[in-house]
Amino acid sequence: MLVMTIESSCDETSAALIRDGRQILSNAVATQIPVHRRYGGVVPELASRNHIRDIHTVIDEALQEADLQLCDIDGFGVTSGPGLVGSLLVGIETAKALAYTLDRPCVGLNHLEGHLTAILLDFDESPPPEFPYLGLIVSGGHTDLYIVHGLGEYQLLGRTRDDASGEAFDKVAKMLGLPYPGGVAIDRLSTDGDPTAIDFPRPMWTRKNLDFSFSGLKTAVALHLEEAGLPEGQDLYDLCASFQEAVVDVLVMKAIAACKQNDLSRVVLSGGVACNRRLRQKARAACLEENFQYFVAPPRLCTDNAAMLGPIAEFYLATGDEIDKTGLSIRAQSNKPLGMSQRPPSSHHR
Ligand code: KG4
Ligand code: ZN
């Protein structure tokens, strides 16, 4: 099946063409980072207006890159939540209009499910993970640990009780006067820093509880800045590296603990923070030590993009869990976790 997927939940407008839920024929992404940078974060009203401006361009780009036409498409999948309401609406209404005009099915998809299963796409020679695997979603809005039993079957093990890890990166970067998105800036500056320079707390440092908390760490950085002033040069690099190390240590420790407690041996990182080089390095090393398999997609498939919706779009379209084209609406604003009944039970395991 040839599926067009559309993603517009936050500040990236994206359209992709995916064959059989695996093969990425194209993945066009228009980022709004320069638009929001001057405000230090995403401005929802500006985001929706820019989605309207960019959505047709990315759809055209996706078709051109794949050398295909709209009439070749067998079905559509679009992020229907969670995300910014005005932003989601642009993707949803566009997908519905295309599906209606072409008389093709259209399915609304969960953004988090997209992140969790992007690893099933074909992006290099190595085979994708088998089920079940431990999925760690680390993004601007979420920090969640799931067991992925199969497509549509997820079991939440732990999540952040306050800030998401990406949010912590962004807020700390803002305090330091670094540009949005803060995670990218902190990652870059940390390369020249000493991660042991400042002993920041590792919040919820317990293997028993798989929840996270990052707001206390953010406060610890704020207190440090109150005492020591705004750092420059080497001091800035050291602070970035020390903060990053605290976040990474907690993420890796909990991911490994989650595997041990649930008899899992495959770890999959996803979401924007999974681009972080230190996180990739430490997660890989920890998995090697435990004899676990470690998986992470290339950065372009970790940050928001439409291709990541390919595996679930194919799955839900193929299993007939189609949503009425005219009724498809914004789902979850929510923090509602993904569950075991994302879909009706059937034999869908790979
Ligand atoms: O998944 P994503 O693109 O959007 C959401 O669904 O939220 O994630 C965006 C988040 C931002 O908080 C950004 O600062 C963070 O991912 N991020 C990073 C890095 N690249 C992006 N955080 C740490 N290190 C990075 N290299
Ligand atoms: Zn995301």
Order of helices and strands: EEEHHEHEHEEEHHHHEHEHH
Task: State the CATH superfamily name of the largest domain.
Answer: ATPase, nucleotide binding domain
**Number of domains in the coordinates?**
2
Could you say which overall geometry the principal axes of the C-alpha atoms support? globular
Q: Bin the strand percentage.
A: 15-25%
Detailed description of the structure:
By secondary structure, the chain is α/β, with parallel strands linked by helices. The protein has eleven helices and ten strands. The protein has helices at 33-37, 44-66, 85-102, 111-117, 165-175, 182-190, 215-228, 233-262, 277-290, 299-302, 310-318, and strands at 2-7, 12-19, 23-31, 75-81, 106-110, 133-138, 143-150, 153-159, 266-270, 293-296. The strands form two sheets. Strands 3-2-1-4-5 form a five-stranded mixed sheet, sandwiched between helices. It has a five-stranded mixed sheet with strand order 8-7-6-9-10, sandwiched between helices. Helix 2 runs parallel beside helix 3, helix 6 (182-190) crosses helix 8 and helix 8 runs parallel beside helix 9 (277-290). The longest helix is centred in the last third of the chain and has 30 residues, at 233-262. The chain starts with a strand and ends in a 32-residue tail after the last helix. The model is unreliable at 344-350 (pLDDT under 50). Zinc ion (ZN) binds at residues 111, 115, 139, 271, 304. Zinc ion (ZN) binds next to helix 4.
